[in-house]
Amino acid sequence: MVSPRLRKQAVVVMRSEVAVSERRACGLIQIHRGTYRYRRRPEDVQLRVRLRELAEERRRFGYRRLQVLLVREGWVVNHKRIYRLYVEEKLGIRRKLRGRRRAPAAARLVLVPPTEPDQVWTMDFTQDTFASGRRFRTLNLMDGCTRESLEIEVDTSLPGLRVVRVLEGRKQQGRKPKHMIIDNGTEFTSQVVDRWAYENGVQLHFITPGRPMENGYIESFNGKFRDECLNENWFLDLADARRKIGDWKWDYNHVRPHSALGYLTPMEFAKAWAVTGRGKDARWKSPKADFSTELGNPAGGAGFPLSHRPDGCGCVTTTTTSENPNPEKVSSSLD
User: Fold this and answer.
1) pLDDT over 70 percentage in the chain
2) Deepest in the core among 34, 124, 130, 292, taking most CB within 10 A?
3) Strands 179-182 and 120-129
4) What is the DSSP track for 224-256?
């Protein structure tokens, strides 16, 4: 079936190629003359913004009630146009099935990428096993701006109360987010987490079920954590797992270059932001700074085999020693 847009284009081509009237061309293409003459009105950005604001204030209102509120404010708009904007902005709240646990109502706003530390935090769980086969879990908490790993809590059980304990520990250190991106797990939808967020003014943003890409910061971190730590270590017991994971967490924050931060470490990025209000574009580092010396990597081959040039060009070079005249090819990817 040909769409009205294509039919309008066909009428334009016919009138340009053959000398026929508009009435005749519309009759041959079988399109109404009103449809052919219709021109879409320019988009009203203020209307779209006001609709989002009302949807945030009235979370349980549908598009018809929102249209009534807009008409009361003086907007000349019908329900069909509001419905189109309502769908485009994805303001609809998914209905919960009876008998299932209800998640707290989440704000219906699209989060912009964070521009400062402690603006957006994100957290998620990962799972692994000890040498004995017993399973353990980790609660991964990170800052969306600096990519800093704030906490990796390791234990065999991590209920909602344990999540609140971790968040409260960061609060005692003077850090608290404005927004928190989480999935719909039972630990995050628990009443204790919802109450802590309400008391501390933290807005919880739940991702759409089955769409982990909406929480891309922590998903990317989980992939690095599993590839570089969990898959590379053999954990004997809980104490051994906490020690090894803690060492990796320190290395991730202080040593490991991060491509999204201009190959700075999360702590370097945070320091640059604190000094200049910018991150990877700030030239706060000393011209003699080097990952192998300033960050404590041993100079004798241990640690990273790549040296990063501090002039901001992003080039990397490989080093070889005389003891190994035919070294294996070293990948230049740091992630």
Assistant:
1) 77
2) 124
3) parallel
4) HHHHHTGGG----SHHHHHHHHHHHHHHHHHTS
